[in-house]
Batch of 4 targets.
Target 1
Amino acid sequence: MIPAKTLLATLLATASVLVHQAQAATLNIPQSHPRIWYSTAAGTPGAARLARARTYNNSNPAPSTNWEEAARNRFVALRALLQRNNTSGCDSTIKTWLANYNFPTRNDSNWSGEKAIVTFDWCFDSLTATERTNIINRWNARLTELNNDAWGGVTMAGNNYFWGYLRNGLLWGIASYHHNAQAQSFIDHALDVRYRSLTNPNLSGGNRFQKWYEAFGVGGTLLEGTQYGAVMVDYPVMAFTTASDYGYNAWDASPFWKEAVFFLHYNALPTTTLHHDGTTGKYEIFPYNDDENFVNGDSAIKEDYGNFLGMMQLRYPSLPVARLAKNWVDTRKVPMPWWIKAELASTTVTTTMPSLPADYYAAGSEFFYGSGRNSRFMLQLGAAESNEAGGGVGHHHLDLGNFQIWRKGRWLTRETTGYARNIVGWNNSGTVDARASVAHNTVLFEGKGQIDSRLDWAKVLRLQSATGYSYAAVDMTKSYRAKAQYSWDAKYDWPFAETAIREFVYLRDLETLVILDRLRSGSDSLGSVYSEYTGPKMQGSAVRKTFVLHATGTGSSATGNPFTVSTGQASAVVGTGSTQQRLDLRTLVPANPTFRIINEGSDVGQFRLEYDTSGTEQSYFLNVVSTRDNAEQAVTASVVDQGGSWQITLSQPQKGRAVIVLQKGETSAGGSISLNGGSAQALATTVQGMLVQNTGPLWGGAPATPGVVTGGNQQALSGSYRPAASAQVQPAARAPVSSSGSTLKSTGSRAGAYLRTARAFLQVPLFVVRGLWNRVFEEPATEGR
């Protein structure tokens, strides 16, 4: 019998070869160098690009830098190309660096990998045959090792390392082609396994990004957050453009890239925002997930965005998306790489700004954006987790149900964004990381919200974009709980939430957000299965449920408390003088809550309002959050309990009046809204569809089926785009089903486990693995039991 480890190695190698032979991406790469971005091969896009760059260089010389060695070397190589003297320009310093560089860490692979590979390509003619061979052999081994790294591997298509590895592999395959026997395998891994095959868009086990897009990327969300998500659109620019030069139209392979332009538009604020220390306003974007630099301001001013949005102008100059991209970078003065600016100098964007709707829904991430008279809001109905079942990212926050509001250059309320930054915890006790739910505008059960070991994502139940209002309802219950079938499962649970449904109604003219939380707590912690659980144990009626609302501190260092509280009401004033903005909170249910204000500490400049309710298992929070100029008259809010529903009346003399009816109960149902004395309109009972077209987002008149992807230039997928459970809590194991419907035998055996491992590692079609397995080894049905 063949040893299992030997068999696995044989299986992996053989299947890898077969998959590459069957799915290889074909690029027509010239023999000559350079090949990346620029070329000397007549008639190629790179050759035309090089000619334009040389013209641009006459009046806008390529810069130099000494701040970082890899960047310095790439610019030296660039100037050599532009001066038509590649050999002498690539000096001994560059050759020595290339001879020793070997992608030393994951981070350096991201930061310097492209620079190294591009320098190799642009300086190829100055290297000796021996120098080239040594570099090729060394980089082959290292890049293969990085491609096999689980963190940033094929199951993490929303992760920054995933994109660094994809970019590096594709560039290296192109740069070393004709000289490197492994070059095609790097191209295959980048395009056919990590990305998407244009010739076979349904490649089983491959197209990891395509699968991620269908589940989490529809709408163009850069899911890893405002710091790390930016590289998702930056890293592919040079690699995808070069692949497109040689016959693989990577940009048009997925609607994600055009959608990302619209996403960036809605995620960005239209004017500068007063920094929390009171200094000059800076250009910002709605924050989410880890971002250690957000506290410094200028979160929108990144070359990552300039690189991508510049590329979108070059790629689609006659489409509205190009005008939107141009407006984004021109308004914010976003920096761009020299080679992008050289191209844009001879590119004319021929379209006008598209007419865009007030609201935008990224169906993959379940982020919902909208606007009022002078305000913008963001609702994080979904979130990002650290494994494929949760979005294939890292750097995620526990922020389901979070809301943020901006008005006239001020944050009225936003999350506390950070990365490995501690803040004061719930109820003023201890400290927690800023990724915790309490750092966001969420609801908590006995001090905690969403947990890492969650059963599942939130589920958007209802969604609507209407002329005068926006509406959404989301069930977050499973994100508060872990599997608790056995004591070893239950110890990871936070066993208090039985229902957590949040509803939002945003009134555009009143610039007011109504928030209804349907909350039910339970007594699971008292059950026998919680024998290994070490948290508090209590009756469901004793569980404290908490509403959380943030505001930026006052003063030059944002250390002053912005909140003023009274019975059932609170307000926060941001800014100074005539431009002061005000946030008003009116709690309608429960009556007369006790507010506590907490200085979160650290350097984030945020204060947090909390209040609790307990005493019954079923509870409700009904809150009205209004925004206005500090000198303006406030929106009044009142509620009438109608037995089975509440009638909320909102009014402001200059802005209008609204009457909202929300049904009571554990589930979200019914409800209506009347604006300015008009007839009552029923709130949507399903999820309204939105399609992102070349001309922009289009809200559909017919509702979408919940759980079905409706965004993107693609057909809606059948079935749910959310996994039934996260990777940590998969249902009981069942025999894997082949393409013909039969099951693979002996799924509990050791050899069967190796088979499943091989399939998971390669992400190849099941019939390929099964066929190879049957040729090499017929497994006894009872082996290993």
Target 2
Amino acid sequence: MTDPIPAAELAYSHTKNLILTGGAPGGQLLSEAQVGDEIGVSRTPMHEAFLRLAAEGLLTLSSRKGAVVTPMSPREAQNVLDLREAIEAGAARRIQEAGGADADLVAALEAALSTQRAAVGSGDVEGFVEADQAFHAAIVDASGNELAGQFFRTLRDRQQRLRHQLFRVRPDTLADSLADHETLLATLQRDSGYDTLLHAHIARHQGAL
């Protein structure tokens, strides 16, 4: 039998998911009582969760307004995209210099693509976004640069928030993003060209900033 999730952890994960997926967009006022009622959690663990999210920069707390979802500024978004591109381009370069993606990496990338194809067909944005993260993280991890992998993971929440924002503003880009990934995988097996394609792929986010 699985142990129940602690109330504070449930409150934290639920509220964080609302923010990252755009269910609670930047600038929206969130009530501890209202969110707690929705998931059956009392005020104390909700307050702990809100404090934790405030420490992560996802909520702004004030005595006058309460809890407001912190918007992601265009500058912050651009910084995230720049760092993401630099890390992944460097990782891909290492992989290409070593002879291209090995069988394990190809299998991981193909699995992510399979999930994304199904998600495009069903309109499952959440599933597509999770597979998107898995695709790019697999490339960074396969480079063997552990520091790059660790830093890439610290960007995960902000990247996921940006992905959801892009697909809300431009839902037609799901299929375009999938096509990019298929081309990126093919290019990873060659000597060069990945960084150019990656730059164009990440540039799709510009329209949502």
Target 3
Amino acid sequence: MTLQKVRQIFTKILLKALYTKLFHIVFSVIFLTLGTATVFSQEITFSDSIKLDSKDLFTVKDSIIKDSSKKPKPFLDGIVNMKAKGFEKMNQKKKQLTLQDEASIKYTGFDIKAGKIVYDFEKKQVYAGRLKDSAGNFIQRPVFTQGTNVIEPDSIVYNTVSGKALIWNSRTKQGEMNIKAEISKRENDSVVFMKSARLTTAKDIDDPEYYFYVTKVKFVPNKKVIVGPTNLVIADVPTPIFLPFAYFPMSETSSSGFIIPTPGQNNRQGYFLQNGGYYFALSDFYDLAVLGDYYTNGSYGLRAESSYAKRYKFTGRFNLRLENNIQSEKGFPDYVKSKQYNIQWSHNQDPKAAANSRFSASVNLGSSQYYRQSLNLNNVGASLNNNLSSSVSYSKTFQTVPQVNMSLTATHSQNTNTKQIDMTLPTFQASVDRIYPFAPKDGIKKGLIKNINLQYSVRAENRIKTADSLFFKPQMFRDAKAGFQHSIPVNTNFKILKYFSVSMGAAYNEVWAFNTIQKEFSALENKIITEDQNGFEAFRTYNFNAGIGTTLYGMFNFGENSKIQAIRHVMRPNISFGYTPSFEKYYDTYAIDATGLTTAEYTKFDGGLFGAPGKSYANNLGFSLSNTFEAKVKDKESKKDETKKVMLLNNLNLATNYNLAADSLAWSPVRISGGTQLFNQKMDINFATTLDPYAIDNSGKRIEKFNIDNGGSLFRMTSANMTLNYSFSSTDGDKKKDKQNQQNGGTGDDLFGTSTDLSDSRQSLFKKDDDENLEKTTSNEWYATKLPWDLRLAYSITYNNSNRENEISSNSLMASGNIELAPRWKVGFSSGYDFKQKGITFTQLRFERDLESWRMSFNWVPIGTNTYWGFFIGISSSILSDIKYDKRQIPDRVF
């Protein structure tokens, strides 16, 4: 099995106070496994005095008489293949072979390609260099490949016997690090020396934005690296950042080490050290990082972060965060102390791991106030979101006839405002595939009888409803409720009169309950007491349903000369009937006063997991109508006067019910909903309303009198809402989601601002959607006429009139946008206005400068309860993440 190593972004130090990620910098010199025992000048003289055909290279004879018992070795022993586009020459006197123009030699253990190659088969040495074109520019730089190491120097001398080499201006890439050294030499098999080396994560190694200049390097493969004077150079200007020497352990595998903390200060917790700790390289499959924060006022935070992966099997990540937050000082009136925690776990199974089973997890649970009070995470979208949810599931399919599906799921839903938690530990579901008992094994299922089918499904739950303060305490488990629900639906469908589709069905349900109630009047306490009962109880219900529907098409033609040539209207009317009998046998009575003469009815299954049997007899007729409107218009971009379809109204739905068994208020309110997309599907519009045909009395209760007969209109609008989303840009919009925001409980867009993970400021404030085009531009270029930009608008309005309020309950407009002033220069904003509360909603301003290998950003929330600003400049690469300047003022937390 091929293993997949888990990559980490942490700086690792082993018993060295000043250890930085220069370990990875020096580690990248592993390509210098070549050395030489002789010093050569960079100027190499090539001999071209003799020209032979390639077949003559293997027929040269030595003039010295040798023992006939020994076979002479060929001069080019070990060469697998050689070729040159220009010419091949042999100097028999100097015993040198010259290959010119796109030359290459494949030797045992290495491969060399270059503009010019000279092979000295007496010294067993290869000389490779560049050529000059007609303009005097060097071309065809040598490419030396040995194993997994690839070197692109200006010139190279390599001894095929000893394996030693001398290399000038070598260029190589190891991970994220690019290395260029003027001279590289290996003293012996275990020591490599470098002189005047440049180490950088910039893509252009010949003209990098920054680099570390190292004068001397001693490298012992797989053991250690010792470097001499090292200086950070930015834009070819040396900086004061200087190290006289450094020692680093060397290993090809992940190694444990310390993680350097980030110092800082804020106005509520004082001075602090954040994100310091230790990294444990446990194995190739998983790792662990233990991090901590400390503040001088006594606040602290602890985090454990682990990633794991196995190729073709699964990947996952687990985070545990604990915080002890203190505001102000003890003895002051604003002193507040709180403890917060958060658990995140994501697990994804590779689709190739198992064909018939799957395990997945997405967990985000913890303290209700974690995202609002955390000192190490600023995610406004998550702090405004009032729900956290989790799910861990395992499913399996049994390839039997009929097929059986089974799943086991644990879920969690948490309201951060009410601090109420709902969990299922676990939910079990199983179902048998649809069975057609009267259909032939081979043939078409057609007609009333052949289409009769049935299924069986079972669902079991252990549900817990608790509060944040009782989470995972004994009281939480004592309040759990458990039960089973069995369902057997029987259905069929057929056509009548060719155009009408009829469906009929019946359903049988059986519920097993282990938690019931009992009500009685207590004369001692003079009130009704409800007692919980534990034990097995069951009830059974059934119902019948039928429906008939069809599809109608209407076409309105406007003529060929009209811009709108036709409008098509599609209607799908449907009439349904539902019958549910009364299950009075499951109801009991209890006295409601001390006399015992006045009683009320109840069922012991009230408040159960799967509901309670209904006492009311129901005989309902349902009416629904679905509408779709499309237009055929002339396509302006077509040169052949072709037409295209444009959606006018994606759906317009109307639905209501009439209860044949009701003695009053038989009609249900009419529900109308619709939606469409405009402006090339960049604007989404959705609306809904509820219309009640009945009037209400002075207390707001519905009465048996139509609203039109009470002096009103035909219908009384009780509620309505509309949402509008418009996303457009210079490149026709962007609907991509912010995964980082979603993972931490956010909304997935930047209407509530972008999330800021204070433990890793290297992540961009903006979504990079066109990295390929970005790489083609340089930081010095400017846009000629058109600036890339994007803008998102979200408008929402809700009307309420259920009890003659006649008011707008909510009315707000939100906007967010970004503009690219120049390649790698971006600014953005998020803001809005609440017309109901008459105030500005959350506002965030963003700025970012992409310096290719570096990143600079400024993030500012100027108003509100989450005021915040942060400035960051540092190297984007994870292996040099400690080289940065990070200054911020965290939001003033309100406990």
Target 4
Amino acid sequence: MLAHLDGTPVGLLQRCRLADYPEYLVEVATLVEVPSGAMTMDYLIGEPQLIGRGIGPRMIRSALQAIWDEHPDAPCVLVPVSAANRASWRALEKAGMVRVAEGELEPDNPVDGRAHYLYRVDRP
């Protein structure tokens, strides 16, 4: 999904069922129990100067609402994030997600370390 601000694309977000990626599911399950139907998401803001302006939490809240609306079987959303990426995990917190675990996971970006936080929000 693309996020727009005043008609201009500013971010990208994708979501999926964890079960659709069995190897990833197994890795996340080393940190917490993963309920059947759990979903996850990835997101980014394209321009660094837009970080810290509240766009990330708005994108995440919007995506969560879409998950609840479009995936009635999803009991929760679990999002691993690099512990070093403070802006990202703060955006998750501002969007209402709660840190439920921390541990080592394979990083999406090779420059990031293996230390990750895992955030969760349950269906309202």
